[in-house]
Amino acid sequence: MSGNRGVVYVGPGKVEVQNIPFPELVNPQGRKIGHGVILKVLSTNICGSDQHMVRGRTTAPAGLVLGHEITGEVVEVGADVETMKVGDLVSVPFNVACGRCRTCIEQNTGVCLSVNPSRAGGAYGYVDMGGWIGGQAEYVMVPYADFNLLKFPDRDQALAKIKDLTCLSDILPTGYHGAVMAGVGPGKTVYVAGAGPVGMAAAASARLLGAAVVIVGDMNEARLAHARAVGFETVDLSQDATLGEQIAAILGTPEVDCAVDAVGFEARGHGHSGSQHEAPATVLNSLMEVTKVAGKIGIPGLYVTDDPGAVDEAAKRGSLSVRFGLGWAKAHSFHTGQTPVMRYNHQLMQAILWNRINIADVVNVELISLDDAPKGYAQFDAGVAKKYVIDPHNQLR
User: Which stretches make up the Alcohol dehydrogenase-like C-terminal domain (predicted)?
Assistant: First the structure.
């Protein structure tokens, strides 16, 4: 049996690279399965959702192997797998999905009914998402392989585009889903809250969908500078001018056609004083203010049911002071929840392979070693304008 190492959540603010068991074809309940494969991990990305756990803002237990953004090579195939073979290079949707239940059949793979005993929806290396072992490791097991895995058509082409293709497991489909659910289309004006990797992926997706102008808002000047460098308009939410005023300075009107929340529950208030304090409903409320009447708001930013580190007792239970009456009065449409990656990943793979989207440049991918993962977590948490991609076997640099 081969060895294995992975990134393990130790406690608030701390991760370590530890020896972990080599994966087996068993589910989290210990039952042997024939529908899975074992992957040698080619690339695995650090995600903002991982950071929520590492900051201690969820009920994640110590010892959790992290990582839900996985690209790999098949090295072992279960007896029931029919369409995958050893040597295939594949992208793994972060959703664990069975392909058999009603929601999977309806392409709502983010809320599969079969892979998590406690609630709808499963994911690798994530709290309350079914106990599936994470992929920030050298090797990982993927169940329901025939359904879940996206096979790259050409190995050499995939390796040449790996910095882009690694984004297919989560952030690119997530950003795209946010833009689609916000109604982005040709000629639309779009505001994206958050210049982190998901926000930048949403901005790139809006451009791919034909938006006339895409405005990205954040408080982090390094991230805003990067957003401008790759062609987006920006607003600085640490300034005292309101969001509507800053949008009006760009568009001539304080409203946009479409808006995307790529921040989630750890949002901070706007303005010089507000930016120092957490205000988890700020983004949602500001988007309702600047989205036109009868507009749509896509919400791929993460919100949780339990937040031990929240600013008040209500927020600890996921209850936020959202101005729902404003949204009702403006006839807004809201769309929340985990992205059903499989609804989009094949088309987005083709967009990458045919040079229709340069997502690695937009999110500023930087390859790091597995041993440097703790440093990558710390730097990402400090707000660097990068998307850290772990190269567990040092094959890509």
Answer: 197-264
